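Action item from last week, closing it out:
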Amino acid sequence: MSRPVNDKNFDMVSTLYHASQGIQLSSQFSQDAKENSDQDAQAFFDRVSEHYEEIADEARKLLKRKL
């Protein structure tokens, strides 16, 4: 698959952006599960959100060092 931009900084920014979107979506999914009293799904989406937060945090730190 070809990418529109072949640039390591763009790749990092893109990863940060998509991880941030993942945080937002999984948090909403967690809230939806909570509203439907589905504790298993809520816990799952909370874990997913935490993973996205770790990825976003690492991307921010790497970008800060590289830019």
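Closing note: Residues 8-35 form the longest helix (28 residues).
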